[in-house]
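Morning F.,

Quick status update on the modeling queue. The single chain you submitted on Monday has been processed. Sequence for confirmation:
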Amino acid sequence: MPTTKILHETHAGSELAQARLRLAQAVLKPGNGVWLLGADNERISERPIDLAPAVTDGRPYMAGTHDQLLVADVDTSQKPRAAVGLRVVIAELRALGIQPVVLNSGRPGHQHLFAQCGIHLQERLGALAKTYGIDVRTKSPIRLPLSPHRHGYPVSLVEPATVEEAVMALRRRVRRPLRTSRQSWLDTGVSPHESDSERLQALCLAMYQADWLPDEAYEVLRRKPGGKVLQRYKRQGRDPRTEFRRSWEKARLFASQHPRFEGPQELGVQLVELQGRAEAHAWSGVAGSTQRMVLERLIEIAISTSQVEVSASERQLVEDTSRARRGSVRGALKALQRDGWIRRVTVGSVDKASTYRLNLGHACAQNDPLVDTPPITGVMNSGSFCAHDLFARAGGLGVSPARVYAVLVQSPGPLSMAKIVAATHLKPRTVQKALRALADTRRNLAVKTSDGWICGPADIDELAQHRGSTGKGAELKARHRAERLVFRGHEVGSRVYIVKAAPQRKQCTGTTQAGAPCRAWARHDSAFCVHHEPKPEPIVVAPPMVVRDVAIEIPSQRQAGTEDRRQRHLVDGIRGPG
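Structure tokens below.
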């Protein structure tokens, strides 16, 4: 069986099933089952079944959603005004800081909208959507996100970029009461803050940490004395919803960067889970090994100090990880920050080390934009080079097309340009060139549709054989491994790098003015230091010859002619006549 077909059936199929399961669990009403659908959208079974068998069955399924969701079925092919209504509803949701989830349900022009909001906002936006011809589902069931279409049309996630973000935006929240002090701030409007805007920010943070919905928090703040600053914004001509959304977004960012823990035990559990995700991550090459060792050392420091923020200098990390150069550790820290493992809080100085904060919510598979699963076999999209012959550097397509192709293989639906750039950490121009190379008619590894890019039907094994790069990947891996063994002293079968000792430096053989031996290091090409290095003998150069100007009398032409005649006359007189 071709390799591409195997990847689609085994890995991509399992990932799609996991994505469907996670999204369905986020929107499903507690205690409800799902209905399997037939070719005419009729219910097949007499009673609903459990979610897991329905997802793995492969047929369409539908169910009722929980009460915190606004659910709408948008048909822009039959109702052109529905597209305008969808944009209006999404703008209203974003104005309150709510992340909408939009999916292509199957048929061209058909989309499903899911958004988490309170009952009052559901009624208001539902009435607004109906004026544009949008079908709002209040009690009737709907096909769950990424559920298969009965005619086999492709389904995909349009917004947000990843399944993880969609699950976080759709999961049901249990609203908890505020703390006594925060409730007093809200009811009385009296707080230790210097301004009303600071009190509004503190209340937004407290409500977000208590799992309040944004629209519910806005309605309460608008009516209570603690949120009277919103009324003042309105009198000043400023939009109170925009100001609330800005404060709510700040609260969300602060809460994500400073998670709350019940105690050191819960923090320790989170750090151990992060350590497990770091070990399961596919670190590739020498640079990847350095990143893994630096991250593991930071986690060890966090576990020993029971703190999320750790302080470590580059010199300390060099010594703890047995790296030869500080540049390697510095590059590893930059790569870990880029991939979201850590975040630098403070920059170090001469007498103080830098402080880093560990991202406890980091997903293991950063290269996969859809689900949290291990990378696929055969195509390494997280390393600096690929293992397959078609993408080997020695005669293959290269690293960038391999990373883009791996993302397309793992995706259950079409991907836009922005999603591919975010998943591969490549520049947009590089992704464009890679897609152009993959979409070449001679290869057909990528196909562009109206919804985005999908994986092509071509087989990479056949293309590698046709291109003549069969075996190049193994040769490249063997050569790289030999180079690492020579230049890095990598021990076979071990995760420890044996760093070669630095060459022994020589001490200067000279003496000081007091007669004591010099303690400075000698130069690499001499037995003396820079101060005792014998000075070369000076080269004596004769002074340059100075030529003075001399006045030379040059006879005129008339004088020269007279002298010439006189000389001829004397000669004739000596010879005589004849």
